[in-house]
Amino acid sequence: MIVTSAKINLLDLDRRDLEAFFVALGEKPFRATQVMKWVYHERILDFAAMNNLSKALRERLAAHAEIRLPEIVADQASRDGSHKWLIRLDSGNCIETVFIPEADRGTLCVSSQIGCPLDCSFCATAQQGFNRNLSTAEIIAQIWLASDVLGDARNHNRLITNIVLMGMGEPLLNFDNVVKATELMQDDLGFGISKRRVTLSTAGVVPALYRLREVSEVSLAVSLHAPDDALRNELVPLNRKYPIAELLAACQHYIADKPYRRITWEYVLLAGINDSEQHAHALAKLLKNIPSKINLIPFNPFPNARYQRSGTAALSQFQSVLTAHGLTAITRKTRGDDIAAACGQLAGQVQARGRRVERRARLAS
Ligand code: SAH
To answer: Which atom from ligand 1 is nearest to the alpha carbon of 169?
Structure first.
């Protein structure tokens, strides 16, 4: 018996990789253009149907490659029009992808890891532990599947106008696969989403931010959540490694010489923890020299959460302090919370949990 090596999934390849793949097969690089149009524009995944390729090439492709999507195993619709899909990747592991329609845009929130290795104290994904990074194909498949279900592919009436890497996981800890996936999101031969409308959200992996600037033009959202290191160390433990001053310097570098860019700061409001007027003044002081937009996120509860959402009075007070300092601050509307699809509620199904999660489970039992 001849043992053949595993087939390459073409969804793992961005345009450059795909051209190199065809050159390695002894073909011209423009075959990549043809195949990408089939896959991302025509939604054809079967090589046999790609009728502008010779029959011989179609057969060689079928022998060496595949275009494999994971499977949607649950599709929940919220009262407010949001959707959450549970996508099965392999035995026991599922991730979640969320679509949020608004009057002027449709945002798809995609995951970058199965679970998350960061241990942010207010986030449901943290409780799941970490299994592994997603491949480029698994990231890009979330968009392919969502736009297919929403009918984007068929009627060209684009419902997905924005993509945010704000689902499960820390995208900058899965750097190469995430960057490749963002290329495919932005490529005209891929999903053709404009650069500014692809946003990566990070808890602040500082060295990766410097690398990102060199290779990508995604918009940046940063999960700040506290104006000082003592508090941020508690909420976002990654801060102990990369404290606020280093994070802000990396963010400033990211947008330097990009006149139309600013950083979106995410700030989850936790009652009695980080939502006082003093916190708001300290936050404004911290950000006063950085082109910024602040996204205030009401805390979304989940089972065993140890925090509560700030009251409306605290929220509007916090927001007006920021505005009085001349900052742009908006409150992110809670969407999809009836189906646990809101920020920080994504849990998926994660196998092979880490020691941290096992310890927690022992303590709880
Ligand atoms: N790891 C990345 C990507 C996740 S984005 C990051 O930290 O940015 C998810 C966003 O939702 C982050 O800003 C996160 O801090 C926020 N979030 C997490 N848990 C939340 C909760 N329970 N309520 C509201 N927002 C939450």
So the answer is: 1
CATH of domain 8-66: 1.10.150.530
Nearest alpha carbon, ligand 1 atom 11 = 343
The predicted pLDDT at position 156 comes to 63
318 within 8 A of 275, measured Cβ to Cβ: yes
- The CA distance from 249 to 260, in Å, is 18
Return residue ranges of the chain for CATH 3.20.20.70. 71-364
In DSSP terms, which residues pair with 269 in a beta bridge? Answer: 298
Whether residue 248 contacts residue 254, with contact meaning beta carbons closer than 8 Å, is answered with no
Residue 96 annotated in active site: yes
CATH of region 71-364, choose from 3.40.50.11540, 2.160.20.10, 3.20.20.70, 3.40.630.30: 3.20.20.70
Is the Cβ–Cβ distance between 131 and 351 less than 8 Å? yes
**What is the residue type of 235?**
L
Q: What is the DSSP-derived secondary structure letter of residue 270?
A: B
Name the pLDDT band for 157 (thresholds 50, 70, 90): low
Give residue 360's pLDDT band: very low, low, confident or very high (50, 70, 90). Answer: low
* For residues 3-32, average pLDDT: 92
> Given a cut of 60, is residue 1 above it in pLDDT?
no
Q: Catalytic: 170?
A: no
Residue 281 Cα, ligand 1 centroid: separation in angstroms?
22
**109, 120, 251, 343: which is the annotated catalytic residue?**
343
Contact 352, 131 (CB under 8 A): yes
pLDDT beyond 60 at 365: no
User: In the chain, which segments carry CATH 1.10.150.530?
Assistant: 8-66
Question: Once rounded to an integer, what is the mean pLDDT over residues 238-260?
Answer: 94
Q: Report the C-alpha gap between 10 and 69 in whole angstroms.
A: 10
* pLDDT tens per residue across span 92-110: 899 999 999 999 999 999 9
Cross-strand bridge partners of residue 76: 84
Strands (E), the chain: 8-9, 65-66, 71-77, 83-90, 93-101, 106-109, 113-115, 130-133, 162-165, 198-202, 219-223, 263-269, 292-298, 328-331
The pTM of the whole model exceeds 0.85? yes
